[in-house]
Design a protein that fits this description.
This protein is α/β, with parallel strands linked by helices. It folds into two domains: about 150 residues, Aspartate/ornithine carbamoyltransferase (Rossmann fold, 3-Layer(aba) Sandwich); about 150 residues, Rossmann fold (3-Layer(aba) Sandwich). It contains ten helices and nine strands. The strands form two sheets. Strands 7-6-5-8-9 form a five-stranded parallel beta sheet. The protein has a four-stranded parallel beta sheet with strand order 2-1-3-4, with helices on both faces. Bound molecules: phosphoric acid mono(formamide)ester (CP).
Length: about 300
């Protein structure tokens, strides 16, 4: 595996390998000095053409805990603003000697294109509406941490599915592991091919809650919309938001997850954020160890491929 671009390239075995490596890095992160020399001598460049708090900082922390050198590129403060093309930008960064490039881009397919140009490994940190594989990996890691079986697990993904790369990668990851996925949204926020993703579709959150093991909430991704797709955010909250009353309908041992950033008062009521079933900060913590695992496995496998092993 030279690159990590989507979940479907992994299969259940590939996801399992990342989970096991993440377990060992979770142990490293508990040590007084949470650092190992696994990637000493490697240079990892982060190329973010779109904003990020969680993904960017957890990849940076993960790389440093593996003793790699890091290079941080931000499109807004780069020569992209002077008209430099994506290809020239990537080739310029790669010419400085990097082993891996972590890419976030607003265009679906940009990391795949960069992987064709670059000798370095490419890791997709979110491309347009398409994929966010490391988010899905940290999400399944967070559920796995609860010691539950994925086989037959009921996962409900609620909200703006149409514009969500997180939804697409999570549908692939949870279904690959044997879970049943239901997409809950108004028709305007579901892609026309929703059922072809292998998920069930519902427009009625209240009818789904009682039989849900994992409730996965999504943000309204207004930055990717060119028209109003719900009558108002207040009405969306009343119909599809996780209110205190709806949280009461969820099983006591269910999990409430969200990739962040959360919009309190829209997809989740502020008072529900403190519910003991909420795992949002566990997801963030697990992002570091899962990204350590991804960086380690991708770079080890690229090195093995280069040496013909
Ligand atoms: N979940 C996620 O991708 O968050 P950021 O946009 O902050 O990286």
């Amino acid at each position: 595996m030279k690159d990590l671009l989507t979940i479907d390239q992994l299969g259940a075995d590939g996801i399992g390998e990342i989970m096991i490596a993440a377990d060992s890095f979770a142990e490293v992160c508990q040590r007084p000095v949470p650092k190992v020399p696994a990637l000493r001598g490697k240079t990892i460049a982060s190329m973010f053409f779109e904003d990020s708090t969680r993904t960017r900082n957890s990849f940076d922390t993960a790389a440093k805990r593996l003793s790699a050198d890091t290079m941080n590129f931000s499109a807004s403060s780069s020569s992209v603003s002077k008209g430099e093309s994506l290809r020239d930008t990537v080739e310029t960064i790669e010419a400085m000697g990097v082993d891996a490039i972590i890419v976030r881009h607003k265009s679906s397919g940009a990391p795949q294109q960069i992987a064709r140009w670059a000798q370095a490994s490419v890791i997709n940190a979110g491309d347009g509406w398409h994929a966010h594989p490391t988010q899905a990996l940290l999400d399944v890691y967070t559920v796995r941490q609860e010691g539950r079986s994925f086989e037959g697990m009921k996962v409900a993904i609620v909200g703006d599915i149409s514009h969500s790369r997180v939804a697409r990668s999570n549908i692939e990851a949870f279904r690959t592991l044997g879970a049943d996925v239901t997409l809950v949204a108004p028709p305007t926020l579901l892609p026309p091919f929703a059922e072809s993703l292998g998920a069930t579709v519902s427009h009625d959150l209240d009818s789904v809650l009682g039989d849900t093991d994992v409730l996965y909430l999504l943000r309204m991704q207004s930055e990717r919309m060119n028209q109003a797709l719900v009558p108002s955010l207040g009405e969306y909250h009343r119909t599809f938001g996780l209110t205190r009353d709806r949280a009461r309908q969820l099983p006591a041992n269910s999990l409430i997850m969200h990739p962040g950033p959360m919009n309190r008062g829209i997809e989740i009521s502020p008072e529900v954020v403190d519910d003991p079933r909420v795992r949002v900060l566990n997801q963030v913590t697990n992002g570091v160890v899962v990204r350590m695992a991804v960086l380690y496995l991708v770079l080890s496998s690229a090195a093995a491929e280069r040496s013909g092993e």
